[in-house]
Each structure stands twice: as C-alpha cells, then as structure tokens.
Specification:
about 130 residues; alpha+beta; two-stranded antiparallel ribbon; disordered C terminus
Length: about 130
C-alpha cells in the first residue's frame, strides 16, 4: 500500500507527456484530459489525506540520482500536496472554460528612479507595460 504514494508523484509526469501528444492532435481534447487528470490528482491526494492507513505511508526509491528519494505522507507533506493539486486544478480550468474577458497578460516594469532615468537611459514614465505573449 505504501507504493500508492508513487502514483500521485509520477502520474502528472506521465499525463503531461500524453497531454502533449494529444494536444498536437486536438487542443480541446487535450484541455479536457488535463482537467480530468488534475481532478483525479486532487482526488488521489484527498484519499491520502482522509485514509488513516495511507496518511502514515512512506516509500523510498533507492539509487535515485545516486542518493535515493523518500516520499512520506502525513501532516505538512500531505497538506502541501493538497494545495499543489488544488492549484493544478485551478490552473487547468481556463484551458477548458477560456480566460476571463478582461484578463490581459502583461508584465509591469516599475521604474526604480522617480526621475524617469535608468542608468542614463531615459524611460517614458514610472510604469511601463510589456506584453508577455
């Protein structure tokens, strides 16, 4: 039962590879797959959180990067996994339902000098907008 901890760790990596290949074929199918994969990840972590037998599980993979790696459930570890899975689910929602109409991806560059000069190079004002994509 301890090896169950490996599934929530490595499942997103395998699902990402599959989603990449699926996205080359059809974007809407990829978005729906990513949404279902992240929802499944959240349900897996909730299962670990609520099941007393799984909440104390621990598994080690010896020889991983020469030192090995250990996964442990319970307490802070599971809380952080739950927050991460919820974040993944929230990040996958705009792919299915589309972004908010007023959302505009911009990167704000703040001018550190109120005079409007950056190392001798004049800039237009205190806040500059640069489109991210």
């Amino acid at each position: 039962m301890d090896r169950f901890l490996l599934f929530p760790v490595f499942f997103p990596m395998l699902a990402g590879l599959f989603a990449f290949q699926l996205g080359r074929w059809q974007e809407k199918a990829r978005d729906m797959f990513v949404l279902s994969a992240t929802a499944m990840e959240l349900l897996l972590v909730l299962t670990i959180w609520t099941n007393p037998e799984l909440s104390q599980a621990s598994v080690a993979v010896e020889g991983f990067c020469a030192l090995g790696i250990r996964f442990q459930a319970g307490g802070f570890h599971t809380l952080m996994a739950l927050l991460t899975a919820a974040g993944w689910l929230a990040a996958s929602l705009p792919g299915v339902y589309g972004p908010c109409p007023q959302a505009e991806p911009v990167l704000l560059l703040l001018d550190a000098h109120p005079g409007g000069h950056h190392g001798g190079v004049p800039v237009g004002g205190p806040v500059h907008r640069l489109r991210v994509f």
